[in-house]
Amino acid sequence: MSAGELGEPSVERGRLFQDDDHDYIHERSRFQDAFALSLFSASGARAGAIVESSSYRNTNECLYYKHLRFNIQYKDNKIKRWVTIDPEFVKGLRYSDEKVIPKTWITEQKVLGRNFVFYVMVAGLADRAFKGIHTVDELLSKVPPKGRESWTLEWEDSAKNLPVLRMVTSDGPDPVRGLTFSSLHHGLTSLAQRECFRDPLRIHGIRGRVASVIDSKASEATRSQALDHQNPDTYLKYQSKFKRADIQATYWNLDPDYECLEIEESMAHHRDPNAPQKLDAAALAEIENDKEMIDLYQRIDNLTKAIDGRPKEHSELVSQREKLYTKAAKKRRTKNRNSSITGGNPLMMTILLEGISQSVIQPADFPSTPSTCQRDNVYGITYLLKYQSTVNLDDSACSIC
After folding, report:
1. Element holding 120 (H helix, E strand)
2. From what superkingdom does this record's organism come (predicted)?
3. I need a surface site. Which of 138, 166, 178, 358 has the fewest CB within 10 A?
4. pTM strictly above 0.85
C-alpha cells in the first residue's frame, strides 16, 4: 500500500480519533491516551499496574513488552489474535515471588478505537519490538507454524524491558522512561474537559464500571480475581493462572470469547521451543549425559542454591544462570538439528526449534495476504508511522520512534 492510498495524515487521524483536533505535544500522546483507555476498559487494571505509580516514583516500574504475549490462532481459514497481559507490579503482590498473579486475556473487537490488540500491533511496530517483524504486512501475514493451531510471537531482547507507554516530548517518546501516573492523569483529565465531561475521567472510575458489569451471579472468587483483589485467600491460592471473566466483553456488552482462554490453558500452546523434539531414548540419554551438559546442570544448580529464592537480591547470579540456560538450550537445538538430518522431519524441526515459519509455509497452505478489513484496522493509524511509498519502516519515516 502506497502513501497515496493511505491518504493525508489529517484524514487518517479522523478515521480513528474522529473530531479530536487537539494540538498534542506529539502524535504519540494522542495515540497513548486512546491506547490507555482501551487497555483499562478491557482489563479493569489499576493504574499502578500499567504506569509508574506515584508511590514508587523514579522506579520506572510499569507495563513492559515482556509482560505482553501476542498470540495468533489459525483455524478454519481464519486468523484470531489476542494479547495476554502477565502483570508484575500489582498492588499487594509487588515484589512477591510466591503469589500467582492471574493473567488477563484480551481479544480483538470490531470497534477500532476500542481494539486493544490493534494498539499493541501499532506500538510494537513503531518501537521495533516484534522479533523479526518490521512492517505491517509482515505482522498481518504471520500464522502459526505448520502443525500448530496457535502460536505466540516473540519480542526483541532489546524491547522486553521497554515500557509500552512512555513519557513523551515534542521530539517523541522517551527511549526508556515509562509513563507516570501524573502524566496519564493529566492527559485523561484534559481529554475529559475538552469533551465537556461533568465529572473527572479517572482510571478508578473505569475500574468501577468493570466491577458493576461483571456478572452478578459470578462467584465472589471470580469477581475478586477479575479486579485483582486478594480475597478470598483460599481461591487465590488455588486459582487458575488466567482470569475467568472476559472483562472486555462485559465492559462493552459484547458476547464473551472464551476460545482464547481455552487455548491459553492448553499445554499445546505453551510447548517449550528449547525442549528436545522427536529424539529417541538413545539420543535423549546421549545429550543429557554429555559431560559438558552435566557440568552445566551442576553450575545451574549451584547458582540456584546461591540465589536462594531471592532473585531481586542476586541479579548478577540470575544473569549468570540465564546464560547457562541459554547455552544448554543451544546444545539441545544442535542435537535436534543433527537428529532431524539423519532421521526426522527437518522442516518441522526448523519450525519447532527456530520458529521460522517462512521456511515451510507456502501460499497454498495459508492466505498470502490479509483481508481488506485486517489491513484497514492497522493502516488506519499508519499516519503515525508515516510510511513512504513502501511499507518498510525506517527511522526517517517514523514519527513515533
Report:
1. helix 116-126
2. Eukaryota
3. 358
4. no
